[in-house]
Amino acid sequence: MPALNEEASIGGVLAELALCEPPVDVLVVDDGSSDNTAGAARDAGAPVVQFPFNLGVGGAMRAGYRYALAHGYRSVVQVDGDGQHDASYIGALVAALGEADVVVGARFAGEGAYSAGRGPRRWAMVMLSAVLSRLAGTRLTDTTSGFRAAGPRAIELFAEHYPAEYLGDTVETLVIAIRSGCTVRQLPVAMRPRAGGRASQSPVRAAIYLCRAVVALGMALVRPQKVRPE
Amino acid sequence: MNVYGLGLLGAGISMLVIFEMLRRRRLREKYAVVWVLVAVAIAVLAIFPDVLTWLADITGVQVPANLLFFGASLVLLTANVQLSSEVSRLEDKVRTLAETIGLERLDRLEHEGRCAALLQRPDAAPAGTAPAASAEPRDERPERR
C-alpha cells in the first residue's frame, strides 16, 4: 500500500484490510510523508517501509515488490491508502491471478459509478485503453487504475522494473508486463469517491494530461525491451 | 587589448579555475577533460585566428565569427545534455538507495522486535544477561514464509 500523507485515513483502511477474507499481510510504503502516516500505520499493526524523502508512486511500488520477492510472496495486491479501493474485491483479484499474471481492477467495466469526464481527459483514457487492449489481446477499459494484483512472474518483473516516470506506475507497467510476455486481465470493481476531492478537470490541465499520456505511452512502447529469461 | 588577447585571457582564466577546482577536489577529472579541451580550443583560435577563417572558408560560412558562435553553442548544448543524462542516472541511483534504506529500516525494526520478544520469554535468561540469550541462534523461531 503506497501512502503519501494519509495519516487521517490509513488507520481505517488498514482496519478494513484486517477483516479481509482470506487474510492478507499488509505492507505500507510511506513515500516520504510530511505527516505521521508511518506512525499511524504502525499503530494499526502494519509493517512500514519509510522513505527518507518522496520518490513517487513508482518508487513505493518497486520497494513493495522487492519486499514481496524477498519474503517469498506469490501474489501482491496494490491498494491505495486513501480508502478509494474496496478491500472486499481483493479476494476476487487474487483468484483471477490463476489465469493471468496481472489483474487490473477496472472502474468502468460495468460495476460502480465512475466517469472519466469528457474532453481531452476522456480522449486520453480512450486512447490508452484502445492501444493497451490491442497489445494485451484483451479488453482493458481502465488502464490508469492503481488497484491491481500481480502473480509470481509479475512480482519478479516489477521488483526490477517499476518506472518512476509520469504515468509510469500505471500505464507503463502494463506495457512492460505485456512486452515481457505476462498476461493481463481486468476485473470490474466499484471504487469509492476519493476523500480528498476529484482530480482537476480544467481543460488546460486535461489537455496537458492528454499530451503527457501520449508521450508516456509512446516512450513505453519504444523503450528497449526488458528481456526475461524464460 | 585586442580581440586575440581577450580570447587568450578567457582561455587562461578557464584553465586556472579548472586547475584550482581539480586541486580542491571540487571537480572530477572525467568532467574536467571536456572543459580543458574547450579552453585549449579557445587558446588555439586566439593565437592562430587564421584557423577560424580557414574553417569558415571550407564550411562556406561567410562571417568566421558566426562559425565560432555556432560551434560554441553546439559545445554548450552537448555539455548540458550530457549533464542532464548524468543527473537522471544519479536520480535513479538515489531512488534505488532510498528504497533500500526504507526496506532495511523495516528489516531492522522487525529484527529488534524479534530480539525483544525473545528476551522477554519466561524461559529465556533475565534481561541483565542479554548477550547470553542472543547467543543462542537455535532458540530462534523458523522464518515465517
TrEMBL record, chain B:
InterPro entries: DUF2304
Key word Hydrolase present: no
Signal peptide range: none
Low complexity bias spans: 122-135
Pfam families: DUF2304
Keywords: Membrane, Transmembrane, Transmembrane helix
Chain ranges passing through the membrane: 6-22, 34-55, 67-85
Disordered: annotated segments: 120-145
Compositionally biased tracts (Basic and acidic residues): 136-145
Keyword hit for S-adenosyl-L-methionine: no
Name of protein: DUF2304 domain-containing protein
Organism lineage: Bacteria, Bacillati, Actinomycetota, Actinomycetes, Streptosporangiales
